[in-house]
Amino acid sequence: MASLSIETIWKAYGDVIALRDINLEIADGEFVVLVGPSGCGKSTLLSIIAGLEDTSHGALHLGARDVTDLSPKDRNIALVFQSYALYPTMTVRQNITFGLENRRVPRDEQARAVAEVAKLLQIEPLLDRKPAQLSGGQRQRVAMGRALVRDPDLFLFDEPLSNLDAKLRVEMRTEMKKLHKRLGQTIVYVTHDQVEAMTLSDRIVVMNGGEIQQVADPDTIYRKPANLFVAGFIGSPAMNFLDVEITGRPGELSAVLPGPSPVTLPLGATRDELTPYLGRRVTLGIRPEHLRPGGDGLPLDCTVEVVEPTGPDTMLVLDMAGHALVAVTPAEYRPAEDSRITLALQIDEASVFDPETGRRIARAEEGAAVETLAARRRA
Amino acid sequence: MTVADTHIPDLTRRKPRSAGQIAGRVALYAVLLVMAGFVLMPLAVIALNSVRVNEDILRESFIGWPTRLTLENWGTAWSTACINASCTGVKPYFWASMLMVVPATVISTAVGLLNGFALTKWRMPCADVIFVCITIGVFLPPQVVLLPWAIALSWLGLAKSLTGLALVHIIQGTCFTTLFCRNYMINLPDDLIRAAQIDGAGFFRTFWRIVLPLSPPIIIVTVIWQFTFIWNEFLFAVTFSSSDFRPITAALMSLNADDTGVSEYGFGSAAVLIAAIPPLVIYFLGGRYFVRGLTQGAVK
Fold first, then answer.
1. Which of A137, B97, B139, B256 has the most CB atoms around it within 10 Å of its CB?
2. What is a biological process (GO) this protein takes part in (chain A) (predicted)?
């Protein structure tokens, strides 16, 4: 196992810049998930870490070694592919030992390593089968076995669960987490599935347009997104965004939702960080679960447009004075469609963004805790 | 209720056909049979003549049923018929062809497979340009390259030799085999190659252990194509051969020019059929894979 340090990595394909100034320190034994929409550069970054792509600028260190210009085989990393990429003409056993064979590991040692990995992943009865004879979940295990057997310094996973059906995906997710807990490898895991990102990771790296948007633990990413992109990308259903105007006076600020019938949301005394925005517009970000059918909070009058029971929750699509809102409420709450209801807004949980820069306006107590892109950048 | 109790209805229902449809079918098959007869006619005539006595052919007609059956023509054609005043039958030419065709097929297929792999799965600079250059060879008429080859072979000291003709076929054939193999291998998943790279396999090891085991369909196609093409090839065979070494296709031409002036249709026909056997054998052995290989990747 080893730590990984990514220093000012850029990647250009001709005139197209795929990665822009990527800096990331991954600690020994850490499980880091790269997440972002397709084309955000997460897979390119993974390929660069694996050595399948060259960097256009910057350096990579794996532990104390500079691996920037090493070929994949000399990096001592393992990669689990989205397609699994099992060698179709080889048996499971041969698939697992191919890497050991290439490294001229003695036969008895190969056999011992295969037995160990097969036991760990419970694929012992499958060792003499061909990949075509395996189910999706079994192939997934073999692909992981192939990675595990070499005991590499770093594990890379490229959307490994996305070809599985929903039920199996949840099972394998839990299993991966258990495996990481047990073996403590350093893992970089690429996915576009935010649930995987939230559940598996020690830290999430949110990427967009070839840049890192935010690096933080899942809670921080969810509760204190660094910018509008992260806020909108993480969370399902997505965060509600309302453009409001800050009015009142310092210590007694209000957010006013403009429109034919303006709605005033008193912010109280806890939002001093918004004082510089007095008289200006900001974007208010409200998670759907922070609109509750009862209890404390700012009362908001809404019209129910659609009621979508999802099983564990009831999702409401609402209209509030001409603004669309989505709320996630407890399953037993079932207002009639087209009825008028009052929801309690948990304004303390809301995020506020500068609409010009898109950046989060950090609350006083958050201070430097929020890792913004700017903060990650090095001189 | 168990399965055995379940009543199974009559399952023999067919879509009903109208009289018009049936008539259409009959007409279609009639046309197809006539066309098939037309195509098979020359083969049938040659096959029949190969078991007829030559005098019967000359007396009756070139096209006709055998009145007396004989297998003598086959023996004569194989071992005693005279070609350019040497009465050895087609046997030595048959083996000369074999000696040239087998290595030329094997080597051109091997080179094509390596080319295909390098052009599609290995990061090779200008792979597309190189591929286009190689495939131009496929579209060059053989007459165009005849003279350059003659000059090149005499430079190499290989003029009118088995090695020389084999070399011509290896290099000409590589254009075809590269085209086939490249188009097959481009559909192999890139992830397999990347996985092998990460597993520490180099170029040849990846080729040998990962790519080659996935290539039997295209290997069979290429071998059939190359074997048939080189075996049947006539222009190069005539041009680049001499009395020391002559492939069977070139030798057949001289078979009928007998000094007595009597046309020997009987063993001539047998000789033609002997010359046609090897490609047919190859095709029957691998034909199933040939069709499958040509359509590979069409449906997936």
1. B97
2. carbohydrate transport
Is A73 touching B (CB cutoff 8 A)? yes
Q: Do A85 and B201 touch (CB under 8 A)?
A: no
Of A78, A82, A87, the CB nearest to B210: A87
DSSP state of A227: B
Residue matched to tokens 């070809």: A163
Answer yes or no: do A134 and A244 share one domain.
no
Q: Which is nearest to A352 in space by CA: A272, A261, A252, A235?
A: A272
Q: Is residue A370 part of a domain?
A: no
Cβ separation of A89 and B195 shorter than 8 Å?
no
The answer to whether the Cβ–Cβ distance between A85 and B205 falls below 8 Å is no
Question: What CATH number labels B91-294?
Answer: 1.10.3720.10
A238 touches chain B (CB under 8 A): no
Tokens of A120: 């760990």
The residue ranges of every structural domain in chain B are 19-80, 91-294
Query: Taking residues A29-47, what's their average pLDDT?
Result: 93
Q: A10 and chain B: CB distance < 8 Å anywhere? A: no
Are A43 and A139 found together in one domain?
Answer: yes
Q: Do B214 and A88 touch (CB under 8 A)?
A: yes
Q: Is the ipTM of this complex over 0.90?
A: no
Angle among Cα A365, A367, A371 to the nearest 5 degrees reads 130
> Where residue A121 sits, what CATH number does that domain have?
3.40.50.300
Q: What is the CA radius of gyration of chain B?
A: 26
A378 domain-assigned: no
A35 and A177 housed in the same domain: yes
CA quadruple B246, B252, B253, B258: dihedral sign: positive
- The verdict on A308 and A335 lying in the same domain is yes
Q: Determine whether the interchain pair B200/A99 forms a contact, defined as Cβ–Cβ distance below 8 Å.
A: yes
What pLDDT, on the 0 to 100 scale, is given for residue B242? 83
pLDDT-based confidence at residue B261 (cuts at 50, 70, 90): low
Q: Is residue A85 included in any domain, yes or no? A: yes
A192 and A294 inside one domain = no
AA identity, residue B27: A
Q: What are phi and psi of A318, to 5 degrees?
A: -120, 160
The rounded mean pLDDT for chain B is 86
Q: How far is A206 from chain B (nearest CA, A)?
A: 25
Least Cα separation, residue B211 to chain A (angstroms): 9
Domain that holds residue A169: 4-230
Residue A283 lies in a domain: yes
The beta-carbon neighbor of B199 closest among A52, A83, A102 is A102
The encoded tokens of residue A49 equal 């870490």
Under an 8 A CB cutoff, do B195 and A79 touch?
A: yes
Q: Does B194 touch chain A (CB under 8 A)?
A: yes
Number of domains in chain A: 2
When scoring A89, A110, A139, A142 by the number of chain B Cβ atoms within 10 A, the one with the most, hence best to mutate, is: A89
Both A58 and A168 in one domain: the answer is: yes
Per DSSP, the residues of B43-72 read HHHHHHHTTB-HHHHHHS-SS---SSB--H
Does B189 contact chain A (CB < 8 Å)?
A: yes
Strand ranges inside A82-202, DSSP E: 154-158, 187-191
